[in-house]
Design brief:
Blueprint (H helix, E strand, L loop, with lengths): L1 H12 L5 E7 L8 E5 L5 E5 L5 E6 L5 E6 L8 E2 L5 E10 L2 E10 L4 E4 L11 E3 L3 E3 L10 H5 L10 E4 L2 E4 L12 E6 L5 E6 L4 E5 L4 E5 L2 E5 L5 E9 L4 E10 L5 E5 L6 E6 L5 E6 L4 E8 L1
Length: about 300
Amino acid sequence: MQSKFIFLFLLLYSTIFPFQVKNIVGPISEKELIEPKFSPNNHYISATTPGYQRIIIFSFPELKVIDSFDYPGIGYNYKWSNDENNIICREEKYKNKRKFYRISLIDIKSNSIIPLTDYQRDISTPLIAGNNVVYYQSNNKKVINIQKKLDKTIPFNKQDCISYNGRIFLNSDFKIANQNQILLAPQIEHNGKFLVTKVAGGPLKIFFKNGNIKEIGDFVMPTISKDGKYIVMAQTKDDGHVYTESKLYIYDVTSSDIIPIDGLDNFIPVNPSISNDNRYIIFEDIKSSKVYFCELVK
């Protein structure tokens, strides 16, 4: 009888209780918006428009439009710099019916865009880590050891980088050395401790700077909390064209627990982002192409 009681106690103790949401706010704009993000210090919410031609910035929590930036392609997988002064993006243009890309920096204060690379035929969207180091993949030629790159906060040599206002932007190719796996839309933890990404044809994985690898599972669209404790992500179903179902989860990096977020049954939530105090999440609703945010409670 005593052993049965202990078993039931351990079972209850080990149960993972879901996060609940409250105070759902939105849509934050009547415009169709996608890929919303909290800025690193929670002063802003940003989102792009379908087609990725514009990024709109809102004050948070007032939700007043602060600024907008219009350049071809800039909204696709854009990133905030860690100091909130810039947005790192990939511009695109057509020449002779061929598409070219370059990595650029949007300066929020001056409302200007500063090219960081030349236009190239094949260049990935950028990543950003601690010390505002920007990584990107170019021409699919090199295989780089992720852990070695994440250990670096300065470039290997001057030919590999571009410096802007004292910040260093380092060329990099995010394929996994010796495994030949292509990483889809990887995200780097704020201090460069790990990288999380969907491996093409496989699961979501975490690659730690110390060389360890954790497999999370069949999830997509990961974003990392500023303190590096959590990864918010989605598990989706589609009909081959559009998402038909989606549920959000939080992954606890320390415990490896996968915790569901309940209370969003009226939405098809995708592209989640978590605030720097881990209090709010923001997401895009596939049903309406509108953006909402809400509080998280445990």
